[in-house]
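[worker-b] picked up task from shared queue
[worker-b] task type: protein-ligand structure
[worker-b] ligand name resolved to S-adenosylmethionine; SMILES cross-checked against name lookup, match
[worker-b] sequence length check passed
[worker-b] input payload:
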Amino acid sequence: MKQKFDGYAASYDEWFMKNDKLFESELKLFKKALGDISGKKLLSVGCGSGLFESNIDASGIEGIEPSSDMGKIAEKRGVNVIKYGLIEDAELPDNSYDIIYFNGSSSYIKDIKPVYEKCLKAIKPGGKLILLDVPKESAFGFMYLLGSALKTYDHEYLRNTMPECPYPLALADSGVWHTSEDKIRVLKELGFKSFTFYQTLVKNPMYTNEEVEEVQEGYKSGGYVAIIAEK
Ligand SMILES: C[S@@+](CC[C@H](N)C(=O)[O-])C[C@H]1O[C@@H](n2cnc3c(N)ncnc32)[C@H](O)[C@@H]1O
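[worker-b] inference finished, payload out:
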Protein backbone atom coordinates (compact mmCIF):
# COMPACT_ATOMS: atom_id res chain seq x y z
CA MET A 1 0.00 0.00 0.00
CA LYS A 2 1.30 3.47 -0.86
CA GLN A 3 2.31 5.44 2.25
CA LYS A 4 2.00 9.21 2.74
CA PHE A 5 5.73 9.83 2.35
CA ASP A 6 6.38 7.38 -0.53
CA GLY A 7 7.81 9.35 -3.43
CA TYR A 8 8.71 12.32 -1.18
CA ALA A 9 12.02 11.13 0.31
CA ALA A 10 14.11 13.33 -2.00
CA SER A 11 11.91 16.43 -1.77
CA TYR A 12 11.65 16.08 2.04
CA ASP A 13 15.42 16.09 2.52
CA GLU A 14 15.85 18.74 -0.18
CA TRP A 15 13.41 21.02 1.65
CA PHE A 16 15.61 20.89 4.76
CA MET A 17 18.74 21.43 2.64
CA LYS A 18 17.22 24.59 1.16
CA ASN A 19 16.01 25.67 4.61
CA ASP A 20 19.35 25.02 6.24
CA LYS A 21 18.99 27.49 9.11
CA LEU A 22 15.50 26.24 9.93
CA PHE A 23 16.97 22.72 9.94
CA GLU A 24 19.77 23.78 12.32
CA SER A 25 17.19 25.34 14.67
CA GLU A 26 15.13 22.14 14.66
CA LEU A 27 18.27 20.03 15.11
CA LYS A 28 19.20 22.06 18.20
CA LEU A 29 15.74 21.39 19.61
CA PHE A 30 16.02 17.69 18.73
CA LYS A 31 19.40 17.37 20.48
CA LYS A 32 18.22 19.34 23.52
CA ALA A 33 15.10 17.17 23.85
CA LEU A 34 16.97 13.85 23.53
CA GLY A 35 19.74 14.89 25.93
CA ASP A 36 22.60 12.48 26.55
CA ILE A 37 21.71 9.27 24.72
CA SER A 38 24.96 7.38 25.19
CA GLY A 39 24.33 3.76 26.21
CA LYS A 40 20.58 4.23 25.86
CA LYS A 41 18.07 2.31 23.77
CA LEU A 42 15.89 4.54 21.62
CA LEU A 43 13.02 4.06 19.22
CA SER A 44 12.27 6.64 16.56
CA VAL A 45 8.66 6.26 15.44
CA GLY A 46 8.36 7.49 11.86
CA CYS A 47 12.13 7.83 11.53
CA GLY A 48 11.72 8.94 7.92
CA SER A 49 15.03 9.24 6.11
CA GLY A 50 16.98 9.49 9.38
CA LEU A 51 18.06 13.02 8.52
CA PHE A 52 18.18 14.20 12.14
CA GLU A 53 19.69 10.92 13.33
CA SER A 54 22.52 11.32 10.81
CA ASN A 55 23.66 14.29 12.91
CA ILE A 56 23.98 12.29 16.15
CA ASP A 57 25.33 8.87 17.13
CA ALA A 58 22.53 6.65 15.75
CA SER A 59 24.05 3.36 16.93
CA GLY A 60 21.46 2.80 19.70
CA ILE A 61 18.49 3.98 17.64
CA GLU A 62 15.84 1.69 16.24
CA GLY A 63 13.26 2.99 13.79
CA ILE A 64 9.77 2.25 12.56
CA GLU A 65 8.86 3.72 9.19
CA PRO A 66 5.93 3.02 6.84
CA SER A 67 7.58 4.51 3.75
CA SER A 68 10.25 2.22 2.36
CA ASP A 69 11.65 5.13 0.27
CA MET A 70 12.37 7.00 3.49
CA GLY A 71 13.37 4.03 5.65
CA LYS A 72 16.01 2.75 3.22
CA ILE A 73 17.83 6.07 3.47
CA ALA A 74 17.52 5.96 7.28
CA GLU A 75 19.20 2.54 7.30
CA LYS A 76 22.09 3.93 5.26
CA ARG A 77 22.35 6.69 7.86
CA GLY A 78 22.75 4.18 10.69
CA VAL A 79 19.20 3.77 12.02
CA ASN A 80 18.23 0.14 12.68
CA VAL A 81 14.80 0.05 11.00
CA ILE A 82 13.01 -2.79 12.86
CA LYS A 83 9.71 -2.46 11.05
CA TYR A 84 8.55 -1.10 7.71
CA GLY A 85 5.00 -0.23 8.64
CA LEU A 86 2.73 1.87 10.82
CA ILE A 87 3.25 2.18 14.58
CA GLU A 88 -0.40 1.13 14.90
CA ASP A 89 0.57 -2.32 13.52
CA ALA A 90 3.84 -2.71 15.44
CA GLU A 91 4.36 -5.04 18.38
CA LEU A 92 6.76 -3.53 20.88
CA PRO A 93 8.43 -5.37 23.77
CA ASP A 94 7.36 -4.25 27.28
CA ASN A 95 9.61 -2.00 29.41
CA SER A 96 12.41 -1.96 26.84
CA TYR A 97 13.22 1.56 25.68
CA ASP A 98 14.87 4.43 27.54
CA ILE A 99 13.36 6.86 25.03
CA ILE A 100 10.68 6.60 22.39
CA TYR A 101 10.36 9.67 20.21
CA PHE A 102 8.20 10.97 17.39
CA ASN A 103 10.02 13.68 15.43
CA GLY A 104 7.27 15.21 13.29
CA SER A 105 5.43 11.89 13.04
CA SER A 106 2.48 12.53 15.37
CA SER A 107 1.38 15.12 12.80
CA TYR A 108 0.57 12.24 10.42
CA ILE A 109 -1.26 10.06 12.96
CA LYS A 110 -4.97 10.69 13.53
CA ASP A 111 -5.63 8.62 16.62
CA ILE A 112 -2.65 9.38 18.84
CA LYS A 113 -3.91 8.01 22.17
CA PRO A 114 -3.66 4.23 21.47
CA VAL A 115 -0.29 4.82 19.83
CA TYR A 116 1.12 6.68 22.85
CA GLU A 117 -0.40 4.03 25.12
CA LYS A 118 1.49 1.34 23.17
CA CYS A 119 4.68 3.36 23.65
CA LEU A 120 4.01 3.80 27.37
CA LYS A 121 4.07 0.01 27.79
CA ALA A 122 7.30 -0.27 25.80
CA ILE A 123 9.15 2.45 27.72
CA LYS A 124 11.19 1.44 30.79
CA PRO A 125 10.00 2.81 34.14
CA GLY A 126 11.51 6.31 34.37
CA GLY A 127 12.03 6.39 30.59
CA LYS A 128 10.77 9.13 28.32
CA LEU A 129 8.36 9.79 25.49
CA ILE A 130 9.40 12.76 23.38
CA LEU A 131 7.07 14.40 20.86
CA LEU A 132 8.45 17.00 18.46
CA ASP A 133 5.97 18.68 16.14
CA VAL A 134 4.60 21.73 14.41
CA PRO A 135 1.73 22.70 16.73
CA LYS A 136 -1.61 23.18 14.99
CA GLU A 137 -2.00 26.54 16.77
CA SER A 138 1.35 27.93 15.56
CA ALA A 139 1.93 30.22 12.57
CA PHE A 140 3.33 27.22 10.69
CA GLY A 141 0.23 25.22 11.59
CA PHE A 142 -2.05 27.98 10.29
CA MET A 143 -0.01 28.29 7.10
CA TYR A 144 -0.25 24.55 6.39
CA LEU A 145 -3.95 24.41 7.16
CA LEU A 146 -4.68 27.43 4.97
CA GLY A 147 -2.52 26.15 2.10
CA SER A 148 -4.21 22.79 2.42
CA ALA A 149 -7.73 24.31 2.43
CA LEU A 150 -6.91 26.51 -0.59
CA LYS A 151 -5.08 23.60 -2.32
CA THR A 152 -2.27 26.06 -3.11
CA TYR A 153 0.15 28.43 -1.39
CA ASP A 154 -0.16 30.67 -4.45
CA HIS A 155 -3.26 32.56 -3.32
CA GLU A 156 -3.91 36.20 -2.49
CA TYR A 157 -4.62 35.29 1.17
CA LEU A 158 -1.02 34.12 1.48
CA ARG A 159 0.61 36.70 -0.81
CA ASN A 160 3.84 38.18 0.65
CA THR A 161 3.55 36.06 3.79
CA MET A 162 5.26 32.85 2.65
CA PRO A 163 8.79 31.55 3.22
CA GLU A 164 10.92 31.41 0.06
CA CYS A 165 10.79 27.61 -0.02
CA PRO A 166 7.69 26.33 1.79
CA TYR A 167 7.14 22.75 2.97
CA PRO A 168 5.72 20.63 0.08
CA LEU A 169 1.97 21.27 -0.08
CA ALA A 170 1.15 17.56 -0.48
CA LEU A 171 2.91 16.83 2.84
CA ALA A 172 1.19 19.77 4.58
CA ASP A 173 -2.11 18.52 3.18
CA SER A 174 -1.67 14.93 4.40
CA GLY A 175 -0.87 16.12 7.94
CA VAL A 176 -3.26 15.64 10.86
CA TRP A 177 -2.20 18.65 12.90
CA HIS A 178 -2.63 18.43 16.68
CA THR A 179 -2.35 21.24 19.21
CA SER A 180 0.27 20.91 21.94
CA GLU A 181 -2.52 21.11 24.55
CA ASP A 182 -4.28 18.13 22.91
CA LYS A 183 -1.15 16.00 23.09
CA ILE A 184 -0.39 17.05 26.68
CA ARG A 185 -3.97 16.17 27.73
CA VAL A 186 -3.72 12.73 26.11
CA LEU A 187 -0.36 12.03 27.78
CA LYS A 188 -1.71 13.10 31.18
CA GLU A 189 -4.77 10.87 30.72
CA LEU A 190 -2.42 7.95 30.05
CA GLY A 191 -0.48 8.64 33.25
CA PHE A 192 2.69 10.24 31.87
CA LYS A 193 4.28 12.70 34.32
CA SER A 194 7.15 15.19 34.87
CA PHE A 195 6.60 17.27 31.74
CA THR A 196 9.25 19.50 30.15
CA PHE A 197 8.71 21.72 27.11
CA TYR A 198 11.11 23.31 24.64
CA GLN A 199 10.46 25.29 21.48
CA THR A 200 12.12 26.86 18.47
CA LEU A 201 11.08 28.65 15.23
CA VAL A 202 9.47 31.43 17.24
CA LYS A 203 9.82 33.87 14.35
CA ASN A 204 7.07 34.04 11.75
CA PRO A 205 7.58 31.42 9.00
CA MET A 206 8.76 33.87 6.32
CA TYR A 207 11.74 34.83 8.54
CA THR A 208 12.66 31.49 10.13
CA ASN A 209 15.39 30.65 7.63
CA GLU A 210 17.21 33.96 8.12
CA GLU A 211 19.19 32.79 11.14
CA VAL A 212 19.51 29.81 13.46
CA GLU A 213 17.39 30.19 16.59
CA GLU A 214 18.33 29.17 20.13
CA VAL A 215 16.06 26.71 21.91
CA GLN A 216 13.67 28.32 24.39
CA GLU A 217 11.66 26.81 27.24
CA GLY A 218 7.90 26.47 26.85
CA TYR A 219 5.51 25.51 24.07
CA LYS A 220 3.28 28.52 23.46
CA SER A 221 5.27 30.45 20.84
CA GLY A 222 7.25 28.00 18.75
CA GLY A 223 6.64 26.65 15.27
CA TYR A 224 8.42 23.50 16.42
CA VAL A 225 7.83 22.21 19.93
CA ALA A 226 9.21 19.37 22.03
CA ILE A 227 7.04 17.77 24.70
CA ILE A 228 8.99 15.49 27.02
CA ALA A 229 7.13 13.25 29.45
CA GLU A 230 8.21 10.47 31.79
CA LYS A 231 6.74 7.07 32.49
C1 LIG B 1 7.49 14.74 8.98
S1 LIG B 1 8.12 13.16 8.67
C2 LIG B 1 9.40 13.05 9.88
C3 LIG B 1 10.48 12.09 9.51
C4 LIG B 1 11.66 12.05 10.48
N1 LIG B 1 11.25 11.69 11.82
C5 LIG B 1 12.37 13.38 10.49
O1 LIG B 1 12.30 14.06 11.52
O2 LIG B 1 12.98 13.77 9.49
C6 LIG B 1 6.89 12.10 9.34
C7 LIG B 1 7.22 10.62 9.22
O3 LIG B 1 6.24 9.86 9.92
C8 LIG B 1 5.97 8.70 9.17
N2 LIG B 1 4.64 8.21 9.55
C9 LIG B 1 3.44 8.67 9.13
N3 LIG B 1 2.44 7.97 9.70
C10 LIG B 1 3.03 7.04 10.51
C11 LIG B 1 2.53 5.99 11.36
N4 LIG B 1 1.22 5.78 11.50
N5 LIG B 1 3.43 5.21 12.01
C12 LIG B 1 4.76 5.44 11.89
N6 LIG B 1 5.29 6.42 11.11
C13 LIG B 1 4.44 7.21 10.43
C14 LIG B 1 6.05 9.16 7.72
O4 LIG B 1 6.22 8.10 6.81
C15 LIG B 1 7.23 10.10 7.78
O5 LIG B 1 8.45 9.47 7.52
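[worker-b] attaching auto-annotations
[worker-b] The pocket of S-adenosylmethionine is lined by residues 3-5, 45-48, 51-52, 64-67, 70, 86-88, 103-105, 108-109 (CB under 6 Å).
[worker-b] releasing lock
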